[in-house]
Amino acid sequence: MSKPIQILLVDDSELVRRGLKSVLEAHLQPPLHVAGEAANVADAVAECLRLKPDIVLLDIRLPDGSGFDVCRRILPRLPNTRVIVLTAHSDDHSIYEAVTSGVQGYLLKEVDPAGLIQGIIDVAAGHSILDPDTTTRVLRLLRDGASSSNESNLAHLSAQEHKVLAFVADGKTNKEIAGQLNLSENTVKNYLVNVFEKLKIKRRSQAAALFVQHNVPAAKSSFSPPARH
Fold this sequence. Notes:
single chain; alpha/beta; Rossmann fold; Arc Repressor Mutant, subunit A; 2 domains; 7-stranded parallel β-sheet; two-stranded antiparallel ribbon; 11 helices; disordered C terminus
């Protein structure tokens, strides 16, 4: 049996957390383990730092703040932890905040159990996912939010750095990029370090967002919908 995917559930509803735990832990291959739960921003940050989960399944509206506050406080300190927003809210502001906060997935609570589980597996594997109903809106928001300073930063990338960034925007992992470009994973990692420094960002999702801003429609979105089963 493969190593369990460790998950932290963050939602102010105990009923929702119990339901999610029941659904997730019934999946055995790969096993999904709910390592902890939190009902507010303060507890979510503390539990993330204590448990260092693979996945944080996060609601947006919490009693003491926003799920995006959690993202901004944990992601710089936990580079291997990935965040999926699971929410009932699909307004433009929430979607844009999610992308710019560095989340790797955005799903609506209407998603079926199979779609949720596949989304968690995909994000844990290094991909980014977005609910199909919000994809077009995110691309529009990213285009509308494009800035000349970001465009200038992109212009400073070398040809190879631009290729690597394009693959990141297409949702590829470092291993997949290395195979496509006939490079070692370490070389790809070094290219990404340079890209992040030049673009003044810290997360793959932010890099993908910048690429999409200035390459739509030529580039594919880094976000893909979870598979339906």
